[in-house]
Amino acid sequence: MAPSTFKGSFSITHIGTATAIFEIDDIKLLTDPFFSPAGTSWDMGGGNFLKNTETPALGLENLPAIDAILLSHEDHPDNLDEIGRQLLHGRHPWETASVVLGGQKYEVTATPCQHLPGGECTGFILTKAEFGVSADGRPNAIYFTGDTVYIDELAKIPEKFHIVAAVMNLGSAFAAMPDGPLQITMDGKQAAHLFHTIKADYLVPMHYESWGHFTQFGKDLVGEFQEEGIIDNVRWLTPGKSVKIL
């Protein structure tokens, strides 16, 4: 059930990895476009190889009309491949841009991420006046983490926003580095910690299947979410199917 102060509808069609269609009222946003078939591989250098094991649930030819794209970073093919690049203004952390979609003004605020050293990555917070506000006057908002581990700076989010749904890129992905493996996306415990820190209403997991550099999958997440006491606040997605979140 949607929070009592939230005015609007929000559904997600998960396509694969971090690629999804966010249906917010009458507009559709596409996140991190990746459409390459199973078995496609990339040599990222430094001993890092990426290979997807599942074909995305939808292809470009199956997409509805898309109003805008939310791209967390463009330098990793599991978030933007050559096919997805056919669909393409960057944002710095905490910078807000306005865009009119479907006749309504949306505010898109970039959030910080910690992914691979030297790379650029961002998350997004979406708000509009029509979402309404929380009891204490903060704007209701939808949050997409992008690829990141937990960082303390994200604790600033609830100071300005009431997060009704937090869509999190998980999988506990690791990258080979000179000093040893480096964790570059959250695991279930970090996700639960972030969920509590930002005081979100619902958590929507994505980005935890189909890749060899992921170390935590769906059944592992279920166990950790149960241990952390948040399982009733989790909304699971089914690839290729529209799932109503709010």
UniProtKB/TrEMBL annotation:
Keyword Cell membrane attributed: no
Keyword line: Hydrolase
Superkingdom per UniProt: Eukaryota
Name of the protein in question: Zn-dependent hydrolases of the beta-lactamase protein
GO molecular function: hydrolase activity
InterPro entries the record matches: Metallo-B-lactamas, RibonucZ/Hydroxyglut_hydro, UPF0173_UPF0282_UlaG_hydrolase
Domain Metallo-beta-lactamase positions: 89-208
Pfam families: Lactamase_B_2
